[in-house]
Design a protein that fits this description.
Blueprint lengths: L2 H5 L8 H7 L12 H6 L41 H18 L12 H10 L5 H14 L3 H5 L3 H8 L5 H18 L8 H4 L7 H11 L9 H9 L8 H9 L7 H14 L27 H5 L34
C-alpha cells in the first residue's frame, strides 16, 4: 500500500473519510420564525369577548314642575275713610295739646290794635322780627289816631326791619285811618268788618278774633297749610278751602288752639325743608313720616326755639312758657 493510502487511516484503523461517510447529516435548524416554530408554539387563547355593557336606560324624564302661580300683587292700601281720617286728626290735636300745653300767639301785644298792626307786619317775615320792631312803633304811635296822623317816612324807618316797609306802612296807616273814621278808633270784633280794613285778610282777621276777642277761628298760615297737607286732612292748596275743610273736622271750640298747636309744631319740629321726623312725637299718626331726618340724634339738632334749647319768638312771652324770651332788636342774638 502506498504511503498516501496509509496516511488516510486513523489511530483505530478507520479512515477519517469512512467516518465522515457513515455520519448522519445534522438535521437542518429551522429558523425561529418558521412555520414549524409557529406550530410548536401554543396558540394563545383569545380573550373571551366581554359582554357588551348594557346600555343604561335613560332616567325617566321628570315631570315638569307645575308652574307656580305668579304671586298676587299686594293689594294697595285701602284709602283712608273719612271717619278714620277725622279720628286720626282729632288724636293728633289731642297729642299736640300734651306736647305744647303752652301754645300761644307768638306776637307781642297788649290790646287788639297792637295785635292787628303786628299781624299785618308779620307778612313775609318772622314773628320775632316783628316783636323786636313794634315796641318803638307803639311807643311813638300808641293809638289808631296817632298812627293815622303819622309822617309816612318816619313810619317806614321804624318798621324797615320787617321788610316791604313801604307797602306795610301804607297798610297800617290806612287801617289806622279806617279805624279812626269808621269804627270810632276801636278794632271791630266781626270778621266781615275786619276784612274791609287795608291789608287785612281772613288769616289776619282770625288771629285778631281768636286772640283778642275770644272768637274761634282757624289761622291758615304757611305752617298750617304745610302740616294739614302732610297729615292728609286736605289736598287743597287754597287757604279758604283749607279753612273750610279743617273746620268740618273739629268742633268750633277747638279752632283757635288747634291753630296755635299746629303752627307751633310746624315752627319747631315739622319744618318745611327738613322735618325732624326722628324727634317728632306724633310719627305714629303721620302718613308723611320719613320725608325728613329720621335718625333721632340728627333730628334733635333740627329742633327750634324752646324744643332745641333756644329763645322763643316773644320778647314778652305769656306765663307758663318754658323757653327763654327773645332778645330785643340789636341785642346779642337779635
Amino acid at each position: 500500500m502506498s504511503a498516501e493510502g496509509n496516511s488516510a487511516v486513523g489511530e483505530h484503523g478507520v479512515s477519517k473519510r469512512a467516518k465522515a461517510a457513515n455520519r448522519k447529516p445534522a438535521e437542518p435548524v429551522e429558523p425561529a420564525n418558521s412555520a414549524k416554530a409557529a406550530k410548536a408554539a401554543k396558540p394563545v387563547k383569545p380573550m373571551k369577548a366581554t359582554e357588551p355593557v348594557k346600555a343604561v336606560k335613560p332616567a325617566k324624564a321628570t315631570k315638569p314642575a307645575k308652574a307656580t302661580k305668579p304671586a298676587k300683587p299686594a293689594r294697595p292700601a285701602k284709602p283712608e275713610s273719612r271717619l278714620a281720617m277725622v279720628r286720626r286728626a282729632r288724636r293728633i290735636n289731642r297729642e299736640l295739646a300734651e306736647v305744647f300745653p303752652y301754645a300761644h300767639p307768638e306776637l307781642d301785644f297788649r290790646n287788639p290794635f297792637e295785635l292787628l298792626v303786628a299781624t299785618v307786619l308779620s307778612a313775609q317775615t318772622t314773628d320775632l322780627r316783628v316783636n323786636q320792631t313794634t315796641p318803638a312803633l307803639f311807643a311813638k304811635y300808641p293809638t289808631p289816631e296817632d298812627l293815622a296822623a303819622a309822617v309816612p317816612e318816619e313810619v317806614e324807618e321804624l318798621i324797615r326791619p320787617t321788610g316791604f316797609f313801604r307797602a306795610k306802612t301804607k297798610s297800617i296807616m290806612g287801617l289806622a285811618a279806617a279805624l279812626r273814621d269808621d269804627f270810632g278808633g276801636e278794632v271791630p270784633g266781626r270778621l266781615e268788618d275786619l276784612v274791609k280794613l287795608p291789608g287785612v285778610g281772613r288769616k289776619t282777621a282770625f288771629v285778631v278774633l281768636g286772640n283778642a276777642f275770644g272768637v274761634p277761628g282757624i289761622t291758615v298760615d304757611t305752617h298750617f297749610m304745610r302740616l294739614v297737607r302732610r297729615w292728609r286732612w286736605t289736598e287743597s292748596d287754597d287757604p279758604v278751602k283749607i279753612e273750610a275743610e279743617v273746620a268740618t273736622i273739629f268742633p268750633k271750640s277747638e279752632w283757635t288752639m288747634l291753630s296755635h298747636r299746629v303752627i307751633f309744631h310746624g315752627r319747631r319740629i315739622c319744618h318745611a325743608r327738613k322735618p325732624a321726623c326722628g324727634a317728632c312725637p306724633i310719627t305714629h299718626l303721620c302718613p308723611s313720616y320719613g320725608e325728613g331726618e329720621t335718625d333721632p340724634e340728627k333730628a334733635k339738632k333740627l329742633l327750634k326755639y324752646e324744643m332745641g334749647g333756644f329763645p322763643g319768638q316773644r320778647l314778652d312771652p305769656p306765663p307758663g312758657y318754658p323757653g327763654r324770651p327773645a332778645p330785643p332788636l340789636g341785642a346779642s342774638g337779635g
